[in-house]
Amino acid sequence: RREPLALINHKKKNEETGEAELTSRLDHYKAKATRHIFLIRHSQYNVDGQADKDRTLTPLGREQAELTGQRLASLGVKFDQIIHSSMTRATETTEIISKHLPGVKKISTDMLREGAPIEPDPPVSHWKPEAVQYYEDGARIEAAFRNFIHRADTKQEEDSYEIYVCHANVIRYIVCRALQFPPEGWLRLSLNNGSITHLVIRPNGRVALRTLGDTGFMPPDKITRT
């Protein structure tokens, strides 16, 4: 709902200027900048933890986060912000990454917490959450997509570079939605820990996927998918 025509009150019509007036108003609502969205999957964590606070990063996970932070810093762009899931493993990953990006503000949100976005098609035998999870998590993750993945605000003059540190299910669902692929196919994608997925959103609303789950900057013995 960010197409310029959708933002205009068509009842307000200047009878004298007609099309010229419409063109002028459309220009006012057109985005001018490109948004670069970097979706980072958290690093390896302690899967045996009973509660979220116990699911902390492993020593290897901390190494992975360091490598991801170094990679992001090496890109040579000015990042505007880091928005991260409030879960422990995402928060710890963010803290390590942010050391390599001094001055970039960090924002925590519950919207990006891990969950079951939508029932996968085809189904898999090793992962069968309760049906209620799809209703609870799905609405939240869809809301996160709508809230964070969109063309630039009309007031934004320069291109932006934003980092989102969250979880595999969330990232995979967001990628499918952003590319207008059937979202039920999200589980067919696979993401390594600490991987970088880069989406580009142009002013006209077109979306491109630059990289998906990139860990080419990590030595092979540091790559995991837990």
Automatic annotation (TrEMBL):
Its EC number is 3.1.3.16. Keywords: Hydrolase, Membrane, Mitochondrion, Mitochondrion outer membrane, Necrosis. It comes from the Eukaryota. This is Serine/threonine-protein phosphatase PGAM5, mitochondrial. It is found in: Mitochondrion outer membrane. Signal peptide: none annotated. It comes from Sakesphorus luctuosus. The keyword Nucleus does not apply. It catalyses: O-phospho-L-threonyl-[protein] + H2O = L-threonyl-[protein] + phosphate; O-phospho-L-seryl-[protein] + H2O = L-seryl-[protein] + phosphate. GO terms for cellular component: mitochondrial outer membrane. Belongs to the phosphoglycerate mutase family. BPG-dependent PGAM subfamily. InterPro entries: His_Pase_superF_clade-1, His_PPase_superfam, Mito_Ser/Thr_phosphatase. GO terms for molecular function: protein serine/threonine phosphatase activity.
